[in-house]
Structure formats: C-alpha cells, structure tokens
Inverse folding.
C-alpha cells in the first residue's frame, strides 16, 4: 500500500515536471530563438540554449551507442531515442518552412532525423524479431 502511494506521488511529480520541457520545447519549436525573450539575437541566451541542445544531442548519441552490444534486445530504448530524434526533426522542418531552408549540414541533419533514424529503427525491430524467432 505504501509503495502504491509512493508510486502515485512520483507519477504526479513527474507529470508536473514534464510540463516544463514540453512547454519550453513547444515554444522553441514554434517561436525559434524569439522564445528567449528580448531581442532574438541576444548572444548569452542563444549560446546557453544552443549548448543545452547540444548536450541533449550528445546524450542521445550516447543512448544509441549504449544499444550496440545487445541491439536485438533494446527495442524500447531504440524506439524512444528515435521518437525524440524524429520530433526534433519536425521542429527543424518547421524552421525550414517558416524561416527558410537550412544550410547543407542542416539539410543533412533533417534527413538524419526524419528518414535515416526511423529507417534504422525499423531495421532494429527486424533484427529483434529475427533474434526472437531464432531463440
């Protein structure tokens, strides 16, 4: 009974806490740097946000790398990471349609997020299914 109450409390706190990145991410996707307030070119705010997002990208890469040793058993992690990358790609696509196309590197990132990552996720599922059939 105590564990059920603790679980419910944790779920409630996580639900509230998750609203912060959901709201901030939504604003960022639709408003771009203007979400930071003041002039969109405010260097300190843009630098901070860029470095934060770069940290997230770094962690996503580590998350994918962590699936390599037993990739056939990492369906949930691989799928979650791919979902995160895909939604980020939607944000980049919004920027391309609202502001204009990105650089060549940005187009490559867009392809990685909206095409390559989902394709790799499908391949990972296939490998996992085959591993389960062989077991």
């Amino acid at each position: 009974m105590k564990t059920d109450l603790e679980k419910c409390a944790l779920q409630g706190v996580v639900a509230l806490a998750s609203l912060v990145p959901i709201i901030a991410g939504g604003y960022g996707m639709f408003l771009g740097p203007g979400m930071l307030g003041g002039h969109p070119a405010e260097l300190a705010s843009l630098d901070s946000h860029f470095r934060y997002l770069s940290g997230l990208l770094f962690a996503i890469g580590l998350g994918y790398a962590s699936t390599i040793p037993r990739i056939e058993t990492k369906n949930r992690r691989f799928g979650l990471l791919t979902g995160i990358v895909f939604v980020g790609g939607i944000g980049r696509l919004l920027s391309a349609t609202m502001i204009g196309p990105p650089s060549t590197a940005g187009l490559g990132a867009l392809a990685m997020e909206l095409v390559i990552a989902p394709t790799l996720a499908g391949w990972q599922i296939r490998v996992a299914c085959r591993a389960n059939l062989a077991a």
